[in-house]
Write a structure and sequence with these properties.
The protein is mainly beta. The protein has no helices and 4 strands. Strands 1-2-3-4 form a 4-stranded antiparallel beta sheet, with no helix packed on it. The chain starts with 12 loop residues before the first strand and ends with a strand.
């Protein structure tokens, strides 16, 4: 299934989710990151727990961050 192409004015922000590791049937860790139009980027690890309403982020930590010299 392909999403339609759209034109967006301004800077782009891309979020991505990488490896998801189940630490137990009720808990997981997910690697995630962002890239802000090549200007800055960062990587995070999210710890989540299953609840009655779905998965809930219980903790997150920044693994790395980067910023270029100009916007």
């Amino acid at each position: 299934n392909t999403s339609p192409t759209r034109s967006v004015t301004g800077r782009s922000l891309l979020y991505s989710v990488g490896t998801i590791t189940m630490t137990s049937p009720e808990r997981a860790e997910a690697a995630a990151g962002f890239n802000y139009d090549g200007y800055s980027a960062g990587g995070f690890t999210f710890s989540v727990e299953r609840s009655d309403s779905g998965w809930v982020v219980k903790q997150w930590r920044m693994e790395w961050t980067s910023k270029s010299g100009s916007p």
